[in-house]
Design goal:
The complex is a heterodimer of chains A (about 100) and B (about 500). With about 100 residues, chain A is mainly α. Chain A has helices spanning about 5-25, 30-55, 60-90. Chain A has a single domain (about 5-90), classed as Helix Hairpins (Orthogonal Bundle). Chain A contains 3 helices and no strands. With about 500 residues, chain B is mostly helical. Chain B has one domain (about 15-500). Chain B is about 75% helix and about 0% strand. Chain B is built from 21 helices and 2 strands. In chain B, helix 17 packs across helix 20 (about 465-480). The longest helix of chain B is centred in the middle third of the chain and has 32 residues, at about 160-195. Classes of the chains: A mainly alpha (about 100), B mainly alpha (about 500).
């Protein structure tokens, strides 16, 4: 049985970050896009918690808490915008956001 | 059983929080007033915001005094850091905000200004930017950045048109991505050094002589991308013209000045120790970013048909120009950055305020955006003063002597030459020449063309009111007579920047 060390957590975090980044680039649905940014931010939390434990230093965990709080408030603002957009355009597809060009 | 923690109140140095607490208290007061008695006139809220910003300004002047006597101040377990950069950054933020907020006293009625929440969010945003510049701690930079950005998204959306919601969603998506990049970059730096304070990170990295240079570069790439979004550096600029077009002209002018100076201060703290420590790769990347941002933005600005979009691209180009200071990294260059930004703030806010007073609520036939070039055709016939003032701001932005931005450009290019970046100085000078073309295009439209729109309704200066005219007059005077106070201003800035070790 292999012991799970810091590197495993960091690799997990990087993979999740890549998934989030891919989601932001590929998703055409705004709600899914916002989910992808959540994955992006939360992947960092895993790494912060793991590194913080590794160093025995609490500032990483503090950072993770702040990231959680910020991710939550970002969702609040983002969903608010999304609801208004859906009321106005009847769709949350990325393709509807193209009245400005150039 | 945990030991009780004893911390003396003096060691916290609570006074370092005053400049940020004043706008926060102001925002809460505005919200409370609305709770007690709703439906009050917007001018009350504008005056309250101005009052709190003025108090904020006073406390900052006080800190500038203290700094010149005692040097850098730390507070709250060394999280707060009040040094010269923090003071000058906050001064620029607060003064630009004081110029911006009276622009809401328009003669036409606009949706967003009737809500007290607008002013509360505005003050919270200022507090966020202030936290961002007055700290060395990556957590607080992150929190300040997000506090300011989240408030800003809402302010854009409050303009209540389809385009503003679109702009807010675009900005929000880019901002969320930038937040992800920032936290990932900070995480790598934390993994490498075990610290989240910039000065300790640089000390630890220097102590082991950058043995993990690969990881440092990955971290720096993410941080650079994150600040690239905030500073709208090419290739992270794509949101900028759309967001400026979608938000009200006044807010667009504000966005091209205040968030960027906050991001510049953080970029200065973060990247300069890396540039100085012979991380050659970063120097190359910054060089390429600066040159691309300056040049491509200028070229795109040439082909715009809307004045606001043209000004958006021009502000990208100015940001690239100023980013060169972070590449050069000398005290002279860093002081030139702040000087440039003060002068640019006045000219740019003036130009956007001119667009704002010309904003009509109903578009005339053949007009497909708020401020196409054709709208300003023949302006000199109907409104000679307005045309002259707009032309003045354009000449200043183009960098014609003796108007405002010229002095910034001069100091910046001089610092590039004395920093050993001769080719960069040449590119900067060439870019100023290209930029002159599109600024002059607007002047040609105003002074030499016949009016295009055949309309009996007024389309110019419809939104003008006394406060707006005063702000524009103030910006005009500052731009014309900048020659008189450029050198004392430069001395003041250099003293602050030099004494904080940048």
């Amino acid at each position: 049985m292999m012991e799970i060390g810091l590197n495993h957590y960091l690799v997990l975090s990087t993979i999740l970050f890549a998934i989030g980044l891919l989601g932001i680039m590929r998703r055409r649905n705004l709600l899914m896009l916002f989910f992808a940014t959540e994955i992006l931010l939360n992947s960092v939390n895993i790494a912060f918690a793991a590194i913080s434990h590794f160093y025995g230093d609490l500032s990483g965990q503090m950072f993770a808490f702040f990231v959680i709080a910020i991710a939550a408030s970002e969702v609040a603002v983002g969903l608010g915008l999304l609801v208004v957009w859906f009321k106005r355009s009847g769709s949350i597809d990325l393709e509807t956001l193209k009245s400005m060009r150039g | 059983m945990l030991e009780p923690v004893n911390i003396s109140l003096e060691s916290l140095n609570l006074s370092t929080l005053t400049p940020m607490l004043i706008p926060i208290i102001g925002a809460l007061v505005i919200l409370c007033i609305d709770l007690i008695k709703g439906g009050l006139n917007k001018s009350l809220y504008v005056m309250l915001s101005l009052l709190f910003l003025l108090m904020d300004f006073g406390s900052l002047v006080d800190f500038a005094q203290l700094f010149s006597e005692n040097g850098t101040m730390m507070g709250f377990f060394d999280v707060m850091l009040i040094d010269g950069l923090a003071i000058i950054g906050q001064l620029i933020i607060v003064v630009s905000s004081m110029l911006f907020i009276p622009l809401s006293l328009t003669s036409k009625r606009f949706h967003e200004y009737s809500y007290p929440e607008f002013y509360a969010l505005f003050l919270f945003m200022i507090a966020g930017f202030q936290f961002m510049v007055a700290t060395d701690n990556l957590i607080l930079i992150f929190v300040g950045l997000e506090l300011a950005s989240l408030a800003l998204y809402t302010l854009i959306a409050l303009h209540n048109r389809n385009k503003s919601f679109e702009a807010a969603i675009k900005y929000f998506t880019m901002g969320a991505l930038a937040a992800g990049f920032f936290s990932f970059g900070a995480m790598i730096l934390y993994a490498l050094t075990g610290s989240i304070e910039i000065n300790q990170i640089s000390a630890v990295l220097a102590a082991d002589e950058y043995s993990n240079i690969g990881f440092v570069l990955v971290a720096v790439t993410f941080l650079l991308a994150s600040f690239g979004f905030k500073l709208s550096l090419i290739p992270f600029h794509a949101w900028t013209p759309d967001v400026y077009e979608g938000s009200s002209a006044a807010l667009a002018g504000y966005m091209s000045v205040v968030p960027k100076i906050a991001a510049f201060v953080v970029a200065m703290r973060l990247f300069e120790f890396l540039v100085h420590s012979n991380v050659v790769w970063l120097e190359t990347i910054l060089y390429v970013l600066v040159v691309l941002t300056m040049t491509l933005a200028n070229i795109w600005a040439l082909v715009q048909s809307d004045v606001k979009r043209m000004l958006a691209y021009s502000s990208i180009s100015h940001a690239g120009f100023v980013m060169a200071a972070i590449l050069i990294g000398t005290t002279q260059a860093n002081s030139a950055l702040f000087l440039y930004w003060v002068l640019f703030a006045f000219s740019n806010l003036g130009a956007f305020a001119m667009l704002w007073v010309n904003r009509q609520k109903v578009l005339v036939a053949g007009q497909d955006s708020d401020h196409p070039f054709e709208k300003f055709a023949g302006l000199v016939r109907t409104m000679p003063t307005a045309a002259a003032i707009m032309g003045l701001f354009m000449l200043s932005l183009a960098g014609l002597p003796p108007f405002g931005v010229f002095w910034g450009k001069m100091y910046m290019i001089a610092s590039a030459v004395s920093g050993g970046y001769t080719v960069l100085a040449l590119i900067m000078a060439l870019n100023s020449a290209i930029a002159a073309y599109y600024y002059l295009k607007l002047i040609v439209f105003m002074f030499m063309k016949e009016p295009v729109y055949d309309t009996d309704k007024a389309i110019h200066m419809v939104n003008a009111s006394m406060p707006l005219k005063s702000i524009i007059g103030f910006a005009t005077v500052f731009t014309i007579f900048s020659v008189l106070f450029v050198s004392p201003l430069m001395e003041f800035i250099t003293a602050l920047v030099y004494n904080s070790g940048y």
